[in-house]
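User: Structure tokens for both sequences below?

Assistant:
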Amino acid sequence: MAVPRILVIPGSLRAKSYNVRLAALASKQLTLADADVTRISLVDYPLPIYDADTAEESGPPHNAFKLKQLMSAHQGIFIVSPEYNASLTPLIKNTIDWISVVRERGEPPLAAYQNRVFALGGASPRRSGASHSLLALRQVLAVGCGALVLAEQVTVPNAEHAFDDMDELTDAGAANQLKVVVRKLVDTARLLA
């Protein structure tokens, strides 16, 4: 059976972010589930605020092309999103918007979002566990970009108490959710490999 390639993208730039920690844990579990995992930090791919005039006049920035190529090289994408004011972060939205306008010669629109599967997770100090962010992110990916997004997702509430000293989840429910999402992502990505 083919080993699926999974790209993990934490939607936070903060080094001590709960979502960076969740992305690291997801990467570990994906590796244990026999996936070929690449985890990136968006700090390494800075992008200006999306502007359609800029995109039309000078084309998308080089980092948008690099991110699109990274996504296209993977059968699965796991996005871990913080929650800002009950929605997704500007960082994630801006990244998705720039990647959405990148097209190689003869490629259909939104190609980076097609023929791959997306999984979502998020951690928040609030009781919602970033669920509002994931709802908005799901809409952007599924409706706006036409992506296949798994119904299963992992939400980690009360994130300041959610991780132990080894960065494992202390809440059994959230830990189980993560395992379910990882398994479903690997199984679905394997079908696309």
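Moving on to the next sequence.
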Amino acid sequence: MRIFVGIQLAEAVRDGIAAQLAPFKAIANSIRWTESRNIHLTLKFIGEASAARTESIQAALQTAIIPAAPFTLTVRGFGKFPAGDDLHIFWAGVQDSPPLQELFAGIEAALAPLGVAREIHPFSPHITLGRNKARFNFKPIFELLAIQQDRVLAEFPVTAFQLFSSQLTPKGPLYKVVKEIPVDQS
């Protein structure tokens, strides 16, 4: 199965972010938008893993050095990758915070002994909201992005993180929580 580590957002937070995409959806028909139920914050993509490897990863995550208390994250503004005149990924930014960096570092450190490669790029927290492969005139989207780049979209408490499985289907991915790990493990 394909697995990744992330933070599951509450339904109200997911729906609130999805609702704020309406102006973008009205002008961007080439973007394949993420279904509201699938909106989450990915912390570490792992990829294909056997059942035994998934169990080892679960155990490692439960011993990770992570923040000592729940913390709050702020989702602020929309953006895109890559830079320039193209758009492959449409995202909502997650305001960086020391507890989020600590959580990411703890996950990286816990998984490295299992042979899960560390990220080579700095951690840039974001929530993927859409993907695009087609050529398109993105100028109206870029103009709207400039207006919306600092807008607070949501704030939510982080009390746990999750190991997810991802099953790809013709209708899009299906995510399932394999294991939930509380942030405060004391």
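User: Anything stand out in the second?

Assistant: The helical segments are 11-19, 22-27, 51-62, 98-111, 139-148.
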